[in-house]
Amino acid sequence: MQTIKQYIDDNKQRMLGELFELLRFPSVSADPKYAPEVLKTADYVAQKLRDAGADNVEVCQTAGYPIVYGEKLIDPAKPTVLVYGHYDVQPPDPLELWHTPPFEPTVRDGKIYARGACDDKGQFYMHVKAFELMMQTGGLPCNVKFMIEGEEEVGSNNLGIFVKANRERLKADVVLISDTSMISMEHPSLETGLRGLSYLEVEITGPNRDLHSGVYGGAVANPATILAKMIASLHDENNHITIPGFYDDVIELTQAERDALNSAPYNEDEYKKDLDIQELWGEKGYSTFERTGTRPTLEVNGIWGGYIGEGAKTVLPSKANAKISMRLVPNQTSEKITQLFTDHFLKIAPPYVKVKVTPHHGGEPVVTPTDSVAYRAAEKAIAEAFGKQPIPTRGGGSIPIVALFEAELGIKTVLMGFGLDSDALHSPNEKYDIFNYYKGIETIPLFHKYFAELSK
Fold first, then answer.
1. Does residue 152 have an active-site annotation?
2. Domain carrying residue 301
3. Do β-strands 354-363 and 391-393 pair in parallel, antiparallel, or remain unpaired?
4. Domain for residue 110, yes or no?
5. How many domains, in total, are found in the chain?
6. At residue 323, what are phi and psi to the nearest 5 degrees?
7. What is the pTM of this model?
8. Most buried of 29, 56, 198, 373, CB within 10 angstroms?
């Protein structure tokens, strides 16, 4: 441990400066105008893997953005860890809500503010620096493979093709991912599951053009109004989702499981204060931890229609649209839920509008075993680095490729994230604590150490 801390102390400014360089690339995969910068980011990641000591580093082309691969195979008899991360980021919009430019990392109160600071550049880059540390100090106890992709934020459409075509190349004993969060640095935790995802877009069409709201208002259905009513009907008075069959495959937690989940530290007043809200909202009969980790949800991610520019324009819009995501839990499947939503939304549409539902992407929910060698290695690593045992939790987000790795490579995943729920992922003013960044670099070599020892 002393060697690890000494190396970090000796190189901490360089390690932070490299992360800042990485954060300056606007690697937004959702917007084609950023394509050149996304490609530059892949090249930067590849070079940093080479600098850290990885062999066979390659920027692997796909039908979309490339996947960066690198490896260090020290002994075929030793276990192999496959590190996954992503170098693409969410769009920075709305730009006017950022206090500082999203692609110019700024430090305030010990926190790095930049798009991708936590999701996932700051977190995956910890693994690159931890690998460098192990290489430089002679402490690499496992074979290590890196697979860092550039399309996670748009559904990882080409990752499955790459994994299927490279099963032998990616052969490993465990996947290690840092793209999740802890309860806090005072209460370290390990996520033992993730929700799945069904993401789609709906379009409501009324008249064949925008109409004068005075001439036609009251005689022709307004698609924006109809869309709002249809969306509102998707939850009942208990905030229960009303789509028939939606809950059919949901596995209910036992009371013992619910009690264990709710034993984690939680201060509702602080939770509300951080979000600047007066009251919480959610499915009746469930706690915050249950609602955000073990229950399925349906959320509107964006809604628009008609005139939204400056000033007034009195129109009755021809179309209204919304983007909707549903988080799924075991044993729901994205394919079935997408179909159930589509059938229901078409059925509840009144005859004076036309409805179109377009699926975008999805992923399956996963639960990781807590009795595996890899999980126990992560537990020991965190316990040593933080001085206390990690609390097992369920993550509310989705990493669709976790189910993919299990299906195609036959291996489980350890979700060892160092972010915080308050890091404003996908929002303006995303941040990542500098302390967390260095703590991750300190903890990751301990995972490799204990994974090697426990695998014997």
1. yes
2. 196-250+296-363
3. unpaired
4. yes
5. 2
6. -105, 130
7. 0.86
8. 198
